[in-house]
Amino acid sequence: MAIMVTGGAGYIGSHTVAELLARGEEVVVVDNLQQGHRQAVLGGKLYEGDLRDQVFLDKVFQENKIEAVIHFAANSLVGESMKLPGKYYHNNVYGTLCLLEKMNEYGVGKIVFSSTAATYGEPENVPIQETDRTLPTNAYGETKLAMEKMMKWFDTAHGIKYVSLRYFNAAGAHESGKIGEDHNPETHLIPLILQVPLGQRSHITVFGNDYATSDGTCVRDYIHVSDLADAHVLAVEKLRRGEDSGIYNLGSGNGFSVNEVIEVARQVTGHPIPAVMEQRRAGDPAVLIASSERARAELGWQPKRDKLENIIASAWAWHQANPHGYAKA
Ligand code: UDP
């Protein structure tokens, strides 16, 4: 039986596909290739199409025996979601509804979900625990929370068991050097910083230095994408054991300010990387740091690549070898 990975051609999806393949799993990737890259899919069967297309989804479920779904396919940019909330509700929320309806129709009872720290909004506590209040400050986080709640009710009504993984800030690249981060447009801090030593931008812009943090810039918890990938495999194993649904934070438990990330990148690349202060970006909470104790205890998750120097070094290796990402020129 196969594991269906929606959004498996995207950044975290492709790293999870690589991990599943390394463990000998049969993989079916479903991706509309709006953000994903065909070359990022290192194996398995790739179906190009959209979850909101019922005919397409029927074909995938009919042609494969699906044991479980790992669901990444979604739009995921905080800033864009504040300008185009409808796009996020349509693709993320309606797309997930279509997927869950089909899973129910075809009797697929396990789903691992790509969620986010953005479901919490401005945190009540640092580090954030899964039991803390969820009050998203942006439309992206609101749609991810709606997707989680939808899964809860499909579990209650139809017994579809879910594991929701709330990521903090994914970064880095696969150790093979074959896959890495390539978004278009790129909006994430670490790849944007690395564009400076690559000669693709003159400086990095820092969005706000008047937050209530030690140096005034936002603090985030950066976690290696391959450590995130590991957690998805462990989540599938939890569901295979017949355990109940659950929600887990995935982070390192360490926070770095934007200025600190830039400083580590200067050390890793040996480039001065000029930084220019700008206004705050809409929807950004000041501090997001995870408590991942529950994931460690219940999934047996152990992040192995959690030093920021190593995370940035792996990203730097990928970007140096692939300065234009998956595009050839
Ligand atoms: N950030 C920044 N300059 C940039 C891109 C991001 O200062 O050019 C900040 C952003 O405001 C946030 C942090 O870096 O505080 C991480 O942003 P990213 O978009 O990478 O991830 P997010 O936390 O939104 O998931």
Characterise the protein shown here.
The protein is an alpha/beta fold and 329 residues long. The chain has ten helices and 14 strands. Strands 3-2-1-4-5-6-11 form a seven-stranded parallel beta sheet, sandwiched between helices. Strands 12-9-14 form a three-stranded mixed beta sheet. It has a two-stranded parallel ribbon with strand order 7-10. The protein is globular and about 55 Å long. 47% of the residues are buried. The model has no long low-confidence stretch (mean pLDDT 97). The protein binds uridine-5'-diphosphate. Uridine-5'-diphosphate binds at residues 78, 169, 187-189, 192, 204-207, 218, 220, 258, 281, 284.
**Alpha carbon gyration radius:** 19 Å
Shape: globular
CATH topology of the largest domain: Rossmann fold
Tally the structural domains: 2
CATH homologous superfamily caption of the largest domain? NAD(P)-binding Rossmann-like Domain
The CATH class of the largest domain is: Alpha Beta
Number of beta strands: 14
Mean pLDDT: 97
Order of secondary-structure elements? EHEEHEHHEHEEHEEEHEEHEEHH
Which percent range fits the helix content?
A: 25-40%
Number of helices: 10
Read across the widest sheet, the strand sequence of neighbours is: 3-2-1-4-5-6-11
Low-pLDDT runs of 5+ residues are none
Distance between the termini: 39 Å
Q: The biggest beta sheet, please?
A: 7 strands, parallel
